[in-house]
Amino acid sequence: MENTNQYICQCCGMPLGEETFSKEPDGSVNKEYCKWCYADGKFRYSSIEQLMDFIVPHMTNENYSEEQVREYFGKLLPQLKHWKQQ
Ligand SMILES: [Zn+2]
Question: What is the pTM of this model?
């Protein structure tokens, strides 16, 4: 079986696996993006700011403050392929 640990979404940075890979409109698997960022051939987020507005409230919890989450993703996201291309 293929080791999928190496894959992270190149849009939001989330670790990817068989359950979370996105699919192309023709049904083939796209291992670069998660199914939330990319669906039906379209990206859900058009800017890092838009993505951050979604991620921050979801990732903030008793262990990570909003500030920490913003700092972490603020560094991570610009390194991902999807945002580098822009
Ligand atoms: Zn994603």
Answer: 0.84
**Ligand 1 centroid – CA 62 distance (Å):** 23
Domain range holding 48?
21-84
Per-residue pLDDT of 60-74, as tens digits, reads: 999 999 999 999 999
Q: Is residue 51 part of a domain?
A: yes
CA of 20 to the centre of ligand 1 (A): 9
Q: 46 alpha carbon to ligand 1 midpoint, in Å?
A: 12
User: How far apart are the C-alpha atoms of 73 and 69, rounded to whole Å?
Assistant: 6
Q: Which of 30, 22, 39, 31 is nearest to 4 (CA)?
A: 31
Ligand 1 geometric centre to CA of 44 (Å): 9
